[in-house]
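cron nightly-structures :: item 1 of 1
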Amino acid sequence: MYFIYPCLPYQPRTVDPMWAPEYEWARAQGLATGLVDMDNDKVCFPTPARPTLALYRGWMLTAVEYEQLARLLPLAVSPAEYLSSHHATGWYENVADYTFPSRFLTGPAALDFAASRCYFVKGLVKSFDKDSVLTSQQQLAGFWQQHELPVGTPLFVRDFVELKPDSERRFFVVYGQAFGTGGALLPESLLAALVALRPRLFYSFDVAETLADQPVLV
């Protein structure tokens, strides 16, 4: 299997500096690597051989971009599998019992903001940084316009839950086995989430603890 990384724009033989440490580490371990130039639909390998299977490690891609990548390379993770892991609409229902109660909105809807209740809003892939916490119906009503989102763009609106400081840990899952950063072990109460996410080949998630010591998928 080849591990594919993004190159600098119009420099197909130079890895993007953001990914250089991992790229160089992979090469030092003797892993087969390659670079992809999405702007010019080109891939570059250190040898003439092309991979029979490739795993992309790089910037987040849209559905259209990942389809483009699939036309260039024989990907280990298909476009359908990628979306099922990468977009919230593809994984939330599978793990709803192990994460924050959430809903998908394509327009303003009445939410309960009583008793200082608030929500954390994301796109299907990432958050809006400091603007992600909603504390009023008025904020939700103007959110699409504020961020210049096309009408009907889905938002992933999650119940806001206080988390223990510094409790968040990243896990990578390969063939249903979780590997935590720094050797962290996945809490036993979340092992069933790995079963619920089968047969996804490769994905990552973060785990944190609530103030009540409850491990939760972030």
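cron nightly-structures :: done
The mean pLDDT is 93.
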